[in-house]
Structures are given as structure tokens and as C-alpha cells.
Write a structure and sequence with these properties.
4 copies of one chain form a homotetramer. In chain A, helix 1 packs across helix 4 and helix 1 crosses helix 6. Chain A is mainly α. The structure holds a DNA duplex.
Amino acid sequence: MEKQRARTGSEKEYRKEQLKKAALTLFAQKGFKNTTVEMITKKAHLSPAAFYLYFNNKIAIYRALNKDGIDILEDLMKQALHTSGGSSVDKLYALARAYYSFYREHTDYFYITEILHLGNDEFFYDSTMVKELEKRTLVVLQIVASVIEEGIEKNELRKIDPMKTAVTLWGMIDGVLILEVKKSTLFTGFTIDALIGQLMDMVLLGVKKK
Amino acid sequence: MEKQRARTGSEKEYRKEQLKKAALTLFAQKGFKNTTVEMITKKAHLSPAAFYLYFNNKIAIYRALNKDGIDILEDLMKQALHTSGGSSVDKLYALARAYYSFYREHTDYFYITEILHLGNDEFFYDSTMVKELEKRTLVVLQIVASVIEEGIEKNELRKIDPMKTAVTLWGMIDGVLILEVKKSTLFTGFTIDALIGQLMDMVLLGVKKK
Amino acid sequence: MEKQRARTGSEKEYRKEQLKKAALTLFAQKGFKNTTVEMITKKAHLSPAAFYLYFNNKIAIYRALNKDGIDILEDLMKQALHTSGGSSVDKLYALARAYYSFYREHTDYFYITEILHLGNDEFFYDSTMVKELEKRTLVVLQIVASVIEEGIEKNELRKIDPMKTAVTLWGMIDGVLILEVKKSTLFTGFTIDALIGQLMDMVLLGVKKK
Amino acid sequence: MEKQRARTGSEKEYRKEQLKKAALTLFAQKGFKNTTVEMITKKAHLSPAAFYLYFNNKIAIYRALNKDGIDILEDLMKQALHTSGGSSVDKLYALARAYYSFYREHTDYFYITEILHLGNDEFFYDSTMVKELEKRTLVVLQIVASVIEEGIEKNELRKIDPMKTAVTLWGMIDGVLILEVKKSTLFTGFTIDALIGQLMDMVLLGVKKK
DNA sequence: CATGAATGAGTATTCATTCAT
DNA sequence: AATGAATGAATACTCATTCAT
């Protein structure tokens, strides 16, 4: 193998990105434990040893990806808010669509931020990292909550606890998306689109007849 | 260490249960890959070699637990249906509560049946097992769907696709429960009870003002 | 499994025979290391633990079989001598045929006495056993040697060292038979019969033209 | 223990040789199953894990040694042919001596190529390897057969099937050599030299008086 | 006598991580 | 900075053998 050398700072940054890109795909495909450092470096055309020039250990790259994922999500949510129509319901739709497109267009990141740590125990032992992620998540949730709050004020929405609703919505949507990740959409015969549509319909109108 | 011996058939069954109990806890705590056969047997006061008297391999015990989990869930759901009030909404509540108590009282089973396979590869390579689990899941979903169908007929619920709604509900509730598993309920400051309550409220009445 | 009980002495002997029979087949089929005690006992419809009522350990059964093999061979050789025609060449033929039929009719014993210990190191550490086997082998070789001696006296054979010739013959025939065991007869396209025929022809007449 | 590092390519090749050398001795001494990867690496002053930098698995090193063995044999046979006297009998002698010196000077290789797979299962599961070895063996046999053919044409040898004779000879000599491997030469009181001499005498002249 | 149950000691193989160059 | 080489610590699984009943 040719010796690769990252002379300039940006070249170094580039290598780091390559490694993250490789790890992102592999983690999403095979899980954390089933992805070896060697696999990651091979995909990034580097030697296994080089990995440790860029990351302290295997968990570090996972953490970095996790952060990136939340960055992307936050961006998407903020953008959605700016470009959406005026009514609160419109805005809620826009935010839901943003989250959904986080799932669709950045599936690997969705996988890593929302799913990968489930069924593992070693990821969140670094409490500063946890704190950091929680703060970031709250920012995103706050965006949703404020839309709900606004909707209530404008009398478009029922009187509900905005943050509680935001959190619940988050969980609900995640759950439905995870159905597809678990391949449960396949055997039930519904597309993820149909299920998300159904979710929005239910959430907005309820199932009960008035 | 004293040598333990399971003399009677029922004692043998007991040991098997001990192993499953140990594995259940460990899998839920640390994940599949992070749980070693040694850990399981140590917890069950047996030698690693003894494990293989009771299960063919590590994955076999996981499969057994998975099946047990679904058994429990199915029971709970059927019971809920029989003991609930007459209206469809009551029945839906009862089913939701049943699922919720599956989560509460059998958290480790919930963990294993709903979460553990996420972020891993190896579980679903046995396609007969997958088929079996899918069938079992459909049975549970069908219970929910039929209640919805009945509700529509009785004019208690809006005209919605019963199975699609059931699947969506499943995902939604799972998602909210997973929030707690991910410890996300903690930092948002809501109890899981509150979130599930919020979910039921939203699902029944919708958020939109009429 | 039903509990088997060997009450009478002969029943005990029967069980021992069953075990040897099972081991014989398995050793010949799979080799010593690849045959487990469990396989042997399963084939003999006994529990693994019962094995140790009849043999001290796994090697012991191999040793017993080895002895049995030589018994059979010795018998065959002695019989051959008694039933053969009068000339020394006839007798030599008869003895060769006897050895050959040891291979054909008792292939598993041939395998065990002549081949199995090759490529292993643990069999002959019991020096009394080795001595015993050597003595038995010498008896067989002596049978051949005395026929050769007689042939020389009767002027039917060239003047050759009888015992040296007997030993050489033994090795030569073994070697050709082993060719078939190694499946080398297959790819060369010759049957073992043809090769043994060729061997006898060469040995009697030589290849050199006179 | 000092950490050993193979820096240059040739040093790496050297380490591989060390491993093969260690494995060669051990396989010949103890057999395949009784030789552990740890034994091999210890003898080569490496860690067990390092083994897998050089060979994919335990069987791979056996296969490599097998190939090496046939290389050596083929070389010896070809050389013998080139340096021997003109008569076919001389050539046959030279070839026999070559095979004999393969046994004497490369006993461990002889052991591995001719004996080790006897009494085992697992070696021949790789059919491409088997085919390859058979082809190589046929090449060697063809060398012998062509000398015999020439001898018949030159009227130095009786009319015999050249290839059949070659195969038979191969088996015969192997058999006698194996006698020594089995230590059977010791108790019979003959040296392997004497037996091989006897074999050649018998094969050339026959035992029958004319 | 027979066995079900149990295990200690192995055994090939993997992998995150280190380090001399 | 980059890497080839090396390894310690795991880890699932096997098997001859033991022993209480």
C-alpha cells in the first residue's frame, strides 16, 4: 500500500472526514461491535494504526458522528421553520417533514443518533458527552415546543403542554421510523410514508369521533 | 465452588430458567455482544461448559427469550381485552395499558423483543425464526386492529384503516417507551407515565382545535 | 434414554464388545482425535460415563482394538499356511492373499493396526503395550520367514535373507494397500487388485530381463 | 519477552519461514491435531495472534508445507534423472535413491506429504488443493514410468505396464520407509538401508529361482 | 451397574490498540 | 505523519473425564 501523508492541516481534516464517512456507513450497516477499526481504515485507504492519529479510540469516532448527526438535524429543523407557511399546523408539518427527511436523506446518521446505542452499554459512559448531547437535543425539542406554544396562543391548537407534546411527538415519530429500520413495515405491508401519514393524521385530528 | 447438580427433570428445567433469567438481565443491561457466555453462567452459578448442556449456542438463548417475551405480551394483550370495559375507546386504552405494563413489568423482555436486535446483524439470519416472530407479532397487531374496526362500526372512531392504525400505534408507543430506555425522559423532565398519557390524549383527540 | 444394565458377566462382555465395535468403525472413519467418547457410547447405546466402566480412558479402547486386530491377522496367516498348496511360492501367495484379505475383509482393523497411529504421538507411550505388539508382529513375520526359508532349502527361491525378505514384503504390501487408503489408487486409475497383482509379479520374477 | 519486529520484506519472509519450520517439526512429531497454533508460534518466538499475520488459519500452514514437500521431491527426482548413468536400471536405482534421500534428508516433509493425512479427515476437504497435489504426484510418477518405458524399449526390462509399475513401486518403497517411521525396523533388527536394498534386489531380480 | 449432570483445561481465532521505524 | 508488525486479552465452543445418585 502507498504511504499516505497528510501534510497540510486541511489534508489532515480530509483524512478525518474520510474516516468518519467510512465509519458512518459501516456502523449503520453492521453495528458498532461488528465494525472493526480495520474495516474503517481500509475503507478510508489508511492503515489501522493511522486511525489513532485521528481518534483516541473506536468510541471516539462514534461520538464524533453522533455530534455531526445532531448538527445536521438541528440545521434541518431550523431551516424547516424558516421556509414553512404561517400557520402552526403548517409549521408542525414542516418540522415533522424535516425530521422525516433527516431519516430519509441521512439515514445513517439517524441510525447512529437514534438507534445504535440501543442494545449496547458502553457509549454513554462519558458523562460530559451525554450532557452535551442532551443540551443539543433540548434545543431541537424547544423549536418544536415553541411552534406548539404559538399554535395554542393563536388558538389553532388545543391547550396542551408544549414541551411534553414535543417530546411525545419526537418519540412517536422515532418509533414509527424505527419500525422500518426493524423491517417491521415489510411484513405488515405498509410503506413508511403511509405510516407517517397516518401518524400525522391521528396526531392532528385524533381517532375519536366528535 | 460447590458442584451443583440438577438431579430431577424439574431441577434441570429450573437451571434452564436460571440461565434464561441471567441472560435476560445481562442482554438487557449490556447488549448481546457485550454479554459473554461466561457472564451468563457465572450469574447462574454454573460453569461456561454447562451452558451448552442447556442451549446449543449463545444465540439460542436469545431466541428462547425472544419467544418467551412474545408469549408474555400476547397473554397480556388478550387478558386486557377480556377484562376491559365495553367501548372501543376503553378497549384501546386497555390494550395500550397492557403494552405499557409489558414494558413496565417485563422491561427486560421489552428490551429484548423490541430493541436488542437494533444495531446488530446476526439475529435475523435464521429466517424460520423471523417468520415465526412476524406471525406472532401480526397476531398481536390483529387484536388491536379488530378493536379499532369494531370502534368504527360502532361509530365511536373515525373512519381509519384499522391495521394501518394499529401498526402506527405500535410504533408510536414503542417510540415513546424507547425514549425512557434511552434515558431521554430524564433530561426532558417528564415521566414516562406523563408521556404515554400525552400520547393517548393526542391520539384520541388530536392536537388540532375544531 | 432407557437405563441399560449388564447384570451377568457375559452381558458385561457384550457391552464391551459393542463399545469396541463402535470405536472400531469410528476410528477408521474419522481418526482418533476426531472420534469423541460420546460418539462411541452413542453408537453403543450407552452413556458417555458408562464408557469408563469398561475402559480406563480413550486410548485404552484403541489399544484393545489394536490387539484384536493382530489376533485376527495372526489367525488368517496361520490358516492360510495350513490350507495352501505345497510349493513355497504357493505358500507365499497364500500368505500374501491372507494379508490382503485382512485388508479387504477387516479394513477397519487394518486401518487401526497399520495406519491410525501414524500422524499421532500419544499411542505408544505405554511401552509394555509396544513390546507386546512387537512380539505379536514378530510371530507373524516369522511365519512368512519360515516359508521363505523352506523355499530356499527346496531350491524354489533364490538365496535371500528370509526374515529380511519377510519384513520387506510386509512393508511393500502395506505400502501398496495404503495407496488405496490414501485414495491414490483413484487418480492413478489402477485398482488395488491390479497393483497387488503387479507387486506379486515383480517380487516373484523381478523386473529385469534375464 | 522482547517484542520482535520484522521490518523489511525479507524479514517478513524469514518469519514466515520460521513458522513453517516450527510447524514442520511439530506436525511431524505430534501430528496435526496435537500441534497447537500456540506451540508453533512459541517455537517461532511469536505470539499466537501473529500467526494469523502470516497464515489464514492452521490448515493453511499445513497446505503450504505440503506444497513445499512436493517441490523438494520433484526437484530431487529430476536431478537424479539428469545425473544418473545411462542404463534404465541405473536410472531406476537413481530414482529410488532420490526418493530415499527425500525420506532421509527431509524426513519431516516425507512425513507430512506421505503420512500425516492418514488417520485424519479434514485435510482433503479443499478439493482444489487435492487436485493440485494429485497433478504434482502424477508428474513425479510419470518420471519413473518413462524410465521404465525406456528400459522396456531398450530391452533391459521385462514387458510390464510402466505406469502401473511406477505406482506399485511408489507404494512399495513408501511402505518400507513407513516401517521405519513406525519404528518397526528397530525390533526386527534391520536398518532401513538394508530393507531398501532388499527391496531393490527383489524388485529387479525377483525372488523366484529361474 | 448406569447415567445425567457438570466442569477444567483447552483451542482456534479475533481485534483494539501500541510502537519502532 | 504513516504504517507494518506485533500482541494481550478475549471469547465461543469442545471434550475427556468425574461423580453423586
